[in-house]
Design a protein that fits this description.
The strands form 3 sheets. A 4-stranded mixed β-sheet has the order 1-5-6-9, covered by helices on one side. It has a 3-stranded antiparallel β-sheet with strand order 2-3-4, with no helix packed on it. The protein has a two-stranded antiparallel ribbon with strand order 7-8. Helix content is 9%, strand content 28%. The relative contact order is 0.21. It is globular and about 35 Å long. It has 1 helix and 9 strands.
């Protein structure tokens, strides 16, 4: 894997894959930072670029990803907004990006 981008709902500890699909405003499928040791870091190129476009992942998930997978994960400190997509731009963070 040379690049990994996650576009979706998240919080500081997890990627949420089905936010609101089964139960409104709840996720029933996720990847929690506790699950990260199950990912083999060797699948990533040593220069891989990984980024989460979901909210708050730079507040905890990025650090755990680096510790467990061995590759930095750029994540948002704060919420992200997808309104810019309708103008042909990538999502923006209402805070800062962290690795």
């Amino acid at each position: 894997v040379t690049t990994f981008d996650f576009f979706g709902h998240s919080n500081r500890h997890a990627f949420m894959f089905d936010y609101g699909n089964d139960i409104m405003a709840v996720s029933t499928a996720w990847l929690h930072e506790r699950d990260l040791p199950r990912i083999k870091g060797s699948i990533f190129d040593r220069n891989a670029y990984c980024k989460s476009w979901g909210c708050h992942t730079g507040e905890s998930m990025s650090q755990e990803w680096k510790r467990c997978v061995g590759i930095p994960l750029e994540g948002a400190k704060g919420p992200t907004t997808y309104t810019t997509i309708s103008f042909g731009r990538l999502p923006e963070v209402r805070g800062s990006w962290a690795r």
